[in-house]
Amino acid sequence: MGKFILKRLGQMVLVLIAVSVLIFAMVRITPSDPVASMTNGKNVSEETKQELREHYHLDKSYPEQYAIWITGVFQGDFGESYTYKQDVDFLIGERIGTTLSLVLMAGLLAILIA
Fold first, then answer.
1. Burial letters for 92-101: b for 16+ Cβ neighbours within 10 Å, e otherwise?
2. If you write DSSP's letter for every residue of 12-78 in order, what string do you get?
3. How far apart are the C-alpha atoms of 47 and 2, rounded to whole Å?
4. What local confidence, expressed as pLDDT, does residue 112 receive?
5. How far is it, in rounded angstroms, from Cα 35 to Cα 53?
6. Residues contacting residue 48 through CB under 8 Å, at least 6 positions apart
7. C-beta separation of 76 from 90 below 8 A
8. Distance in angstroms (rounded) separating the CA atoms of residues 58 and 48
9. pTM of the model
């Protein structure tokens, strides 16, 4: 029984790593420029754009960006939202109650239907 649980935990870690790499890659290969999204099409100097790229580590290679991001995640720092300019963990915390209530209601509905 213990070997089974350890095997499943190992598989879970591999799946989480694969999913994190996949999501990171999907976000990074989008054709839009995060700096352009942050500035909302305003006339911003190249110097300011470069400062934003440095602040968000967008001037580094993708593997470096992933390493910085995953290190922050393990330290409890999910980063800052480009759109809302707030910490991501704060934004998740704001919405977790609604999400959990939706999950609970969907679970109860699935049990009733089943």
1. eeeeeeeeee
2. HHHHHHHHHHHHHHHHHTSSS-HHHHHHTT----HHHHHHHHHHTTTTS-HHHHHHHHHHHHHTT--
3. 57
4. 95
5. 7
6. 39
7. no
8. 13
9. 0.72
pLDDT of residue 40: 77
Both structure tokens of 104 = 């609970």
Cβ contact 50:59 at 8 Å: yes
Mean pLDDT (10-residue bins), the chain, 114 residues = 92 95 88 80 84 90 92 89 86 94 96 93
Compute φ and ψ for 9, nearest 5 degrees: -65, -40
Nearest to 56, CA basis, from 37, 42, 41: 37
**Burial of residue 38 (number of CB atoms within 10 Å: 0-12, 13-18, 19+):** middle
